[in-house]
Amino acid sequence: MTSEPSTMDTPLKKLVGEKTAKALAGHLDLHTAGDLIYHFPRRYDERGEHTDIRSLDVGEQATVLAQVQRTAVRPMRQRRGNLLEVTVGDGAGGTLALTFFGNQAWRERELRPGRWGLFAGKVTEFRGKRQLNGPEYVLLGEGGDGEAAANEEIEEFAGALIPVYPAAAAVPTWVVARCVRVVLDTFTAPDDPLPATLRASRNLGGIGTALREIHRPTSKEALYRARHRLKWDEAFAVQLTLVQRKHRAAASPARPRPARPGGLLDAFDARLPYELTPGQRDVGVEIAADLATAHPMHRLLQGEVGSGKTVVALRAMLQVVDAGGQAALLAPTEVLAAQHHRGILDLLGPLGRAGELGAADDATRVELVTGSLGAVARRRALAEVASGAAGIVLGTHALLYEGVDFADLGLVVVDEQHRFGVEQRDALRAKAEQPPHVLVMTATPIPRTVAMTVYGDLETSTLSQLPQGRSPIASHVVPAAEKPAFLDRAWRRVREEVSAGHQAYVVCPRIGEGPASEEEPPAEDDNGRRPPMAVTEVAPLLAEGPLHGLRIGVLHGRLPPDEKDAVMRSFADGDLDVLVATTVVEVGVNVPNATVMIVLDADRFGVSQLHQLRGRVGRGSAPGLCLLVSEALEGTPARERLDAVASTTDGFKLAELDLEQRREGDVLGATQSGRRSHLRLLSLLRDADLIRDARAEAIALVEEDPELARHPALAASVAALVDEERAEYLEKG
């Protein structure tokens, strides 16, 4: 270990020793002094104040500040020796049991009632009681035997505010705190990346002070100033990245695709069997204007499930076809690509059947290109695309590769839940002489600050009205553990709907036996909970039990593509009464006759996902019903989440709730990119004003210095905070 000055790039093994550095690298992905300095505390506990133990979720790795209330020693039943059970409390009525196996008299003497400490471990449940098995801990204050209470450890917590770090079982928070102290003793802060004029106008402190105060705050006020300054670094880096991308895109040339009076679009509007909503008309005007410019459109179209985004996108595609170009729609799965194909052909009628008997004079062709096409059909489809005869082309990302050549690609529409990144954009550029216009659609409503921070380089349009004829959806929680009779009633409701001529979905979190997949959470649960319900297990139970005699189909991502399409088609045609499926039905599946959905183990799904799922019912004239079945008990966070989903169909409210409950890093792409992120502090909800201010400053700076040539420290900081993978994620729609 060294006492020489350390910089951001100094390897940790030079500062904290080889063994500790290896643990930090292996468990927390921390390799350099800079990595550790930017590994900020997730919260601060205060001596004498409580941690809310009752808010802990079973299965999470938790660190709590608590006081020992009592200890008890009893012999173990299954083997020789004693078990020490220590009860700790948070001062607000919440308690945790700590269990230690083996004869450890010294530990009983150390953990005497009245002592305060930090206790870290995995939260489990045994006979309805929360517990930590063999937790790591450090006691606060003097006295006590044992290594855990060593003064060297206690020194980290000499102040009133006790930092609690993101940690691991092998590297608890106090080990991280000790390493941070060692690094801070020799650390030389980097050049301040924020321009001095910006720091002065926004009253922001220096970077060195902020980095020290966030780890070892001298007061609550100093901590607030440090966090505020570091949040500015994060927000400014993200906004600069997005504003630069928008600036570069605006400078790119694109072929204008203006509307043509008397063309396909006008003919389509004339044959629509219903009126467009005012929102659809307004968004249509925005998109039409974008397509007519000489710069590539890059627009996000968001709207509730069923708000009519597909019709808006189809009208944009027809405008491009009228202007002599082609349009491609990328769907996330072959099932949805095939469904879009059928739906668009139905909407277009004779306008989409060029070359066929009964086609309109100025009709185009609509082609489906997927990996499961037979060789002959594939060759024919690719020839239609290459010649330009197919004005509208539908498929998965396979459209961008595998020898698919367009005559003149003018517009790409990216359907829900696609991550449309740099690689795909490069592939598209290779297919077009000039960058095509891009329209990204999402049915997950996005709070304003998320749109500003994650989709900040896209213009945003929102559809908030539902088309006429769409029915309301009622949602209810079915508490299966507390009231089993309610579940029996749910299955009777399915039979009633089927008797009335309607259809039903039953959604499960898991497929069943076989390798894990994206839609498949792990079957095992070592927190005392049973495995999630599985499609392949639930379907036969329903067929033999409460839904006996009904026509039941099964749909999940592990089926071959042609089988998936056949099942979906059977359900859409009314040949099946009940579809037991995974979240493969979450996006885009449109069966107006389906009126009821039962989501099993609903607490295993996210808020936005549940909102998406229930949008599959109530798509026709009959009202929809969504029943959220869960064993989560009243008052638990999981149950409160489900109650919130049941209480409102306002997707924007639910999106904000989802954002509150998820880590910000998930929203900003840390988990998607698989890389550790330095975007630690920014809250997209709480820091909305700061994000808005950072965007305004970023726009002003990029206008005068587009490549940040006059601000090298800032450019380096942006590169570090928003690395290439993150920049790619932020660019994705």
TrEMBL record:
Look up the signal peptide feature and give its range: none
Q: Which CDD domains match?
A: DEXHc_RecG (cd17992), RecG_wedge_OBF (cd04488)
Task: Please list where the region (Disordered) is annotated.
Answer: 511-532
Ranges annotated as biased composition (Acidic residues): 516-525
Which keywords has UniProt assigned to this entry?
ATP-binding, DNA damage, DNA repair, DNA-binding, Helicase, Hydrolase, Nucleotide-binding
Q: Which residues form the Helicase C-terminal domain?
A: 486-660
The protein's name: Probable DNA 3'-5' helicase RecG
User: What is the protein's species of origin?
Assistant: Micromonospora echinofusca
Q: What is the lineage of its organism?
A: Bacteria, Bacillati, Actinomycetota, Actinomycetes, Micromonosporales
